[in-house]
Each structure stands twice: as C-alpha cells, then as structure tokens.
Specification:
By secondary structure, the protein is mainly alpha-helical. It has a single domain, classed as Orthogonal Bundle (Arc Repressor Mutant, subunit A). Helix content is about 65%, strand content about 10%. Strands 1-2 form a two-stranded antiparallel ribbon. A hairpin with a 3-residue loop joins strand 1 and strand 2. Helix 2 crosses helix 5. The longest helix is centred in the last third of the chain and has 21 residues. It is globular.
C-alpha cells in the first residue's frame, strides 16, 4: 500500500469520527476522567440523554471506547490516540485563534 493511500485512509477514519456532533466532546470528557453516564452527561451542555446514548453506541461500535459494567466508559488505545489528537487541535486553536 502506498504511503499516500495509508495517510488518506487514516485521515478518513479520524474525520468520520470527529465530524459527528458531540463525539469530540464525549471523547474529551471521558479522557478527562468522567466515566459514568451521568458524569459525562453533566459535563456537556445541551447534550440530551437520547443523543448521548446514540453517540456512546457509535463509539462502542467503532472501538473507540470500552464499557466496564460497574465502572462506566473508558477510552481504549484507539480512543486515547483520538483524545491526544483532539487535544492538539484544541491547543492549536488556543494558539492561533485567540
């Protein structure tokens, strides 16, 4: 596989996750240590129960998070990488847009 194809596929994978409304906020919230459903919900203004349920399902299906029944939601290795990337986007925004 050509390096350009790999980069394009990697970008598409990340874009498909980050383009969804609320996903970056949910990943960041879990990455900051809020693991329980109600903890996540209380940290994100204007996010409804229904929408949080939908987005958590998407994140589970795309193997971004794992759920531990008694402990809540956690970023897996892929989720940690996405959280890291998202933090860089946020840092760049702070640096160049403020």
């Amino acid at each position: 596989m050509k390096p350009q194809t790999t980069m394009t596929e990697g970008f598409k994978l990340i874009h498909d996750i980050f383009r969804l409304r609320w996903i970056p906020e949910i990943i960041s919230t879990i990455g900051e240590g809020y693991h329980g459903y109600n903890e996540i919900l209380s940290q994100i203004d204007f996010l409804s129960n229904t929408e949080l349920n939908r987005k958590l399902k998407v994140l589970l299906e795309r193997n971004v998070i794992d759920k531990k029944e008694s402990e809540g939601y956690y970023l897996n290795e892929f989720g940690e990488d996405l959280h890291h990337i998202f933090k860089h986007f946020s840092d760049m925004s702070d640096k160049y847009l403020t």
